[in-house]
Amino acid sequence: MSFFESLIGFCLLTWLSVISAAETHYNETQVSDSVYKTESTVYEMIEKFNFPRGILPEGANRYVLHEDNRFEVYLDGDCKFNVQGGYTLHYSKKVSGIVGFGSLTQLRGVSVKIIFLWLPINEVNRGDGNLDFYVGPISASFPLSNFEECPQCGRGVDCPKLLSDS
After folding, report:
1. How many Å apart are CA 157 and CA 149, to the nearest integer?
2. What residue range is the signal peptide (predicted)?
């Protein structure tokens, strides 16, 4: 075997090793950014983070929860309903953010109508017996009892029941 053939063979082997290593790194990156299995309902998932199921309207039919606690919740469609204090809430078809035990941050897809302006709710925290909703630095607190049932878009409240609830 000539020096030239050996050099080409070495370069080819090195190139294949680099490609293999790049594919392995790509696959590991994909796995590290994978999602938790979503075997529970979206309402069960939110309860695991110490939120009442009524924080989401009826029609939340699926979700994705990433390992870093980023989430996406998908509703049947956009949803508006009135809440205590004369406010109207709007949930987009897709709601996203970061969930922690008793906290929702970097929230996207939820807004509140105050007077005639729609303002984004960017954070929700669970306090002692309350949920605190933040629009920028301004917050409003509501008792947890207001969130025992899921709001229906324009029709009152009712949450999907678990089999164990029957």
Report:
1. 5
2. 1-21
Higher pLDDT, 84 or 70: 70
Domain that holds residue 18: 1-32
- The token duo for 80 is 């508006």
Q: What are 164's two structure tokens?
A: 């164990």
Which range (10-19, 44-53, 113-122, 131-140) has the least confidence?
Answer: 10-19
Residue 96: inside a domain, yes or no? yes
| Residues 62, 91 share a domain | yes
pTM: 0.70
Residues facing 60 on adjacent strands? 75
pLDDT tens digit sequence for 8-37: 333 333 333 333 343 434 343 343 444 554
Contact between 57 and 73 (Cβ < 8 Å): no
Q: Are both 51 and 92 inside the same structural domain?
A: yes
- Contacts (Cβ under 8 Å, ≥6 apart) of 124: 51, 55, 103, 104, 107, 131, 132, 133, 134
Question: What CATH number has the domain bearing residue 140?
Answer: 2.30.240.10
Q: What is the DSSP letter of 153?
A: T
